[in-house]
Each structure stands twice: as structure tokens, then as C-alpha cells.
Specification:
Number of helices of chain A: 13
CATH topology of chain B: Ferritin
CATH architecture of chain B: Up-down Bundle
Distance between the termini of chain B: 36 Å
Radius of gyration of chain A: 20 Å
CATH topology of the domain at 3-219 in chain A: Ferritin
Distance between the termini of chain A: 17 Å
Number of helices of chain B: 7
Radius of gyration of chain B: 19 Å
Oligomer: heterodimer
Largest interface: A-B, 83 and 73 residues
Shape of chain B: globular
Strand content of chain B: under 5%
Helix content of chain B: 40-55%
CATH superfamily of chain B: Ferritin, core subunit, four-helix bundle
CATH class of chain B: Mainly Alpha
CATH architecture of the domain at 3-219 in chain A: Up-down Bundle
Number of domains of chain B: 1
Structural class of chain A: mainly alpha
Order of helices and strands of chain B: HEHEHHHHHE
Largest sheet of chain A: 2 strands, antiparallel
Chain lengths: 324, 246
């Protein structure tokens, strides 16, 4: 789910990556002649071709593959989460049929994102890490107890399951934004990544709606309960959402990121940011009387690789180097 | 007030009715000829200037104008719903529409700020309006259908819009538009779920088969402009100056 970060990471070890990619823009020119829809359909192959061609003259360094596999690692994290949750009958019994179908759709979308990334990596793709790499209770592989597992009942309690799902999707949206600016020179890859990014946001919205209404309620018509954004959020991020579903573990998803090594002019602000495009939003015309939260809700913020990894490691067992 | 992110060259251009959005009659006639004959070499016959022919600017300014028009369309709709909600729209749903209104007004105003930080020029003709005539805004189903149409459109527009930005405007504009894009996806999913629970990522908006499975179905500026055209009549907006997606 992190095409952006792939390119970003490649750039760190190979500052000329954009030149390499750009010098082969003719790939896309040929595809353009076939019409945009067709070129879009050929995209995954094209992406693989870009990397293969871009590095054809130099050995494909282990570092490049490591970066591509990092993105795939994050996809495995999400996919394993939904795969297990959707296969757990006792958990699914707690959802209405419509809401179960919604979660099934999200599982399918995430699996499709995995497929897309694997097509980029080809034979260099990492082996399936296996379910044992992940511990979605947060106990990091220890026998989960109330003391060590913040999400102890993640696969038995629909509310906890939705809380973790929302956290993963909101993280994904921010991770994509963090890398997008580095893809501006490659329009085709950028479009693909932005498309996946918007799908993640649709997922996050539905999950938030479900958390507001409850797992047996299909509609989106519920108000957030006052002062309980943690358990009953809006469908968009309001301020820092009071730290998210489980603040001790999820506050970082809505807070400021790590600006070390960020491209010039880029800062990873908290979701409560109200300065956009050089404008102090609260001073804009025609906004008198708007609630303070509205100004930050109108924008989603980006997040850096380091912070994303730290969040993701919440669900990786101790002793594993996965996502380290 | 902060500096405009546009270069002085952009600021120097008149952004009022004369400069911003105005397309010459000759250009319009040329486009018509190309459309009619497929031939681009004929010299168009000059005709009287059409006061309702508008053209987006070239470069990143035109892309901001494009985003501005999308935000203006949404803000117009949501303001109407907030001012005159249908009787069958529940209180919690009215609160959601109030949020949508707030967000889209903020978007519209921050884009306006990019085009004109000092608010000293006229961004669009005073009588340019997004017409709500074709919507049924007296029922819950009607306002949700209208909202879904515009939010799905914006969600589909942004991934393409973002690829058309040049780097000359720096990071501020790029990040502004990027940060806006996923909020539309959140909006779209919410109004879809209000109208039809569970439809947040149906296959009419997200590809579910083929190599692009799991990705948004995008729309080019041409497709978006065509979708918006009936609402902005009698104005006819040209996006001929915008970059063309690869």
C-alpha cells in the first residue's frame, strides 16, 4: 500500500531514480496511443517494466528490493488482519449481513493491493510472512492477557475489530500522502498510488461509520456521541480524534510525524493542523461561525515512513524483523 | 497574509472576468470546427465575443481554478441543504451535511486564496452559479443522490488532477490539493452509505476486476467538465488550457 514510499526509499539510495524513470517515458507514450483505459489496464505490467528497465543497466540492488518488499509487508499486515477476521465465524456473527459484506469487500480490496505490488516485484517478492508474524491483540506474540494486549478481544469483539481496522486504514491514508510528492515526476505510478490511497479513505470512512452506528447497524445516520470520538468517530478525522480508537497505541496515527529527512518544504503535521496552502484557515472569508474542528476535518495530513513503521510494529510479534 | 504560492507572473495576470476563465470566440470557434470536421487547419470565422465563454488558465493556476469550481459546486449544494433541509432528513444527517458544507466552503475559500491572496480581484463572474435546478432537494433521497454525484465526481477527479501539477508552484499547492483528495473519498463513502448502506466502494467507483482491481475509477478534467457543464449554464467553461493526462 506504499508505492509512494517505495520511490521515496529508492531515492534515498539512488538519487537518480527519477531520471532513470523519466528517461523511459516513451513506455507510456506507446501506451497512450492505445487509449487511456487500456493503458490503465496495463498498468501493473508497466510498473514492473519501469523498474526493470530503469535498473536494467545496473544490478538490482538488494536495497531496492528491500524497499519494494517493505510496501508488500504492510500489505500483508492489512490482508492478514481482514483475512483472519472475516474467517472468524464467532466474530462475524456480531455483524449484520450488510456490514459483513462491507468488511469482505475491504478484505478483497486489500488483497488486490497485494496482488498489484507483487506484480511490481515479480520473483523478488518476499515470501509470505505467515500469520504467525502478526499479533493483532497487541501482545506481540506473548500469551495475550488484559495486561499486555490492548486489543485482547480483536477477533471476538466486533467493536475492537472495527477499532483496529479503522486504525490501519487511517494509517494507510497518511502513509500514501507522505510519499505522493516524491512521485510527481512519474504520472502513471502516481495515479495508481493516488487511486489506492482514495480507496483506503473510502474504507476508513465506512469503518468509522460502522463504529458510530455499531456492528449491527447498517445505516450511516448516527451522530457521534459527544466527547467520545475514540469509540464513536465522525466519518472523517476531527482534530486528532482525541488520540483515536485506543490512544496509547493509536495517538501516533493522528499526531505529528517525524520531519527528519523530509523533502524540502514538507512537514508532517498533526491531523489537527489548520494552516493549509499558506493560509490560516480559521481566518478565511465566509467561514464565520464554523466549529473549530471543521477546519482540520477538511484536510487529511501526511505521515513519514519512520512513524508508519512504528505504528505497524504494534501488530508484529517480538523477535520478528518484519517492518523493523 | 502569506505569500501567494503562484509566481509573480501569475499574480500579474488579471484574474477577473476579463482574464480568468475567458476564452476568445475565435478559440471557441476553432474548437467547434475541430469537433465538427476533425480538421484543425481551417481558419475560423470571427464571431462576436460570447460573454458566457470562460476558459481556465494554463498551468497550475488553471488546476486550482478547476478545484475551485468543484468546491464551489459542492458548497452551493450543501449550503442549500443546510438552509432548507428536507423534512425527512434526520437531525444527525443534517449535522453531517453541516460538516460537508463547512469542509467545502473551507476548500473553496482556500483555493480562492491561492488564486488571489489579497482578495482584491474578482475570481469568477458575479453571475456564475452552480445551478441546483436539476436536483430534487426536497427529499432526503434527492439531496443524498445529489451529494453522491458530486462527491464521487470529486473523488474521481483528484487522482488525475494531482498528476497534472507542475513543480513550479512548489510544495504548498501540491500538498493542499493532496490533503483535500482523501477527504472527498471519505465524504463520498459516507453519503453513499447514507443512501445505500454498504455501497461505499461499489464497483461503479472502485475497480473490482482486472489488473487495476482495488483502485478508484478516475475521471479526466474533460470528463469532469462535461459532467459539470449543464450546471454552470449559460456559462460554457473551457479546459483547453489544462494539461492533458498521459
Amino acid at each position: 500500500m506504499n508505492i509512494f514510499q517505495i520511490i521515496s526509499e529508492i531515492e534515498k539510495v539512488d538519487p537518480e531514480v527519477y531520471d532513470r524513470l523519466d528517461s523511459r517515458r516513451s513506455i507510456f507514450k506507446h501506451m497512450t496511443g492505445l487509449g487511456q483505459k487500456l493503458s490503465a489496464a496495463a498498468l501493473p505490467l508497466a510498473v514492473g517494466a519501469i523498474f526493470n528497465k530503469a535498473y536494467a543497466q545496473t544490478p538490482v540492488g538488494a536495497t531496492v528490493n528491500d524497499v519494494l518488499n517493505f510496501a508488500l509487508s504492510l500489505e500483508y499486515l492489512e490482508s492478514y488482519f481482514y483475512q483472519r477476521g472475516q474467517a472468524t465465524a464467532a466474530l462475524q456473527a456480531g455483524f449484520s449481513a450488510t456490514n459483513k459484506a462491507a468488511l469482505d469487500l475491504i478484505r478483497t480490496d486489500e488483497a488486490n493491493h497485494v496482488t498489484f505490488l507483487r506484480s511490481v516485484l515479480g520473483t523478488a517478492a518476499i515470501a509470505d510472512p505467515g500469520a504467525a508474524t502478526f499479533d493483532f491483540t497487541g501482545a506481540k506474540g506473548a500469551t495475550p492477557t488484559a495486561a499486555n494486549a490492548p486489543f485482547l478481544d480483536v477477533f471476538t469483539n466486533p467493536l475492537t475489530y472495527l477499532a483496529v481496522a479503522q486504525s490501519l486504514e487511517d494509517t494507510g491514508v497518511r502513509a500514501y500522502k507522505g510519499g505522493a510528492p516524491l512521485l510527481m515526476s512519474n504520472k502513471t505510478v502516481l495515479t495508481a498510488a493516488l487511486n489506492i490511497h482514495s480507496v483506503e479513505a473510502r474504507h476508513a470512512s465506512r469503518l468509522r461509520t460502522m463504529r458510530r452506528g455499531g456492528p449491527l447497524n447498517n445505516t450511516a445516520s448516527q451522530s457521534p456521541q459527544s466527547g467520545t470520538l475514540n469509540a464513536s468517530p465522525k466519518s472523517w478525522i476531527s482534530g486528532t480524534d482525541n488520540g483515536g480508537a485506543s490512544p496509547a497505541q493509536t495517538a501516533g496515527i493522528y499526531g505529528a510525524g517525524n520531519n527528519t529527512g523530509a523533502p524540502t518544504g514538507v512537514t508532517f503535521d498533526a491531523e489537527s493542523n489548520t494552516t493549509q496552502g499558506g493560509a490560516a484557515l480559521t481566518g478565511l472569508p465566509n467561514t464565520t461561525g464554523f466549529p473549530a474542528a471543521a477546519f482540520s476535518e477538511a484536510f487529511d495530513e501526511a505521515l513519514d515512513v519512520t512513524t508508519v513503521k512504528a505504528i505497524a510494529r504494534t501488530f508484529v510479534v517480538n523477535g520478528s524483523t518484519f517492518l523493523a | 497574509m502569506s505569500e501567494s504560492i503562484f509566481s509573480p507572473a501569475w499574480r500579474a495576470q488579471p484574474l477577473g472576468r476579463r482574464g480568468f476563465l475567458r476564452v476568445s470566440a475565435a478559440s471557441a470557434a476553432t474548437a467547434a470546427l475541430i469537433g465538427a470536421t476533425g480538421c484543425s487547419t481551417q481558419t475560423p470565422t470571427p464571431v462576436a465575443t460570447d460573454p458566457y465563454a470562460l476558459s481556465l488558465s494554463t498551468g497550475d493556476a488553471g488546476l486550482v481554478q478547476y478545484a475551485y469550481l468543484l468546491a464551489m459546486a459542492q458548497a452551493t449544494l450543501y449550503q442549500k441543504v443546510v438552509d432548507a433541509p428536507p423534512s425527512d432528513l434526520a437531525a444527525a444527517e443534517r449535522a453531517i451535511f453541516a460538516d460537508l458544507r463547512d469542509h467545502e466552503v473551507v476548500h473553496r475559500e482556500v483555493f480562492k486564496y491561492q488564486l488571489d491572496p489579497t482578495a482584491s480581484t474578482v475570481i469568477v463572474p458575479a453571475d456564475l452559479a452552480f445551478s441546483l435546478k436539476s436536483f430534487t432537494l426536497t427529499t432526503r433521497a434527492g439531496v443524498l443522490a445529489a451529494a453522491q454525484q458530486l462527491e464521487d465526481l470529486a473523488t474521481a477527479a483528484y487522482p488525475v488532477l494531482l498528476t497534472l501539477l507542475t513543480t513550479t508552484s512548489g510544495t504548498l499547492l501540491r500538498d493542499l490539493l493532496l490533503k483535500t483528495s482523501s477527504v472527498h473519498a471519505r465524504h463520498a463513502a459516507t453519503v453513499r452509505d447514507l443512501l445505500s448502506p454498504g455501497s461505499f466502494a461499489n464497483d461503479d467507483v472502485v475497480e473490482n476486476t482486472g489488473a487495476l482491481a482495488g483502485q478508484i475509477r478516475t475521471k479526466t478534467p474533460t470528463e469532469v467538465n462535461t459532467a459539470l457543464a449543464p450546471f454552470f449554464a449559460p456559462y460554457v467553461i473551457s479546459i483547453a488550457n489544462l494539461a492533458v493526462p498521459v
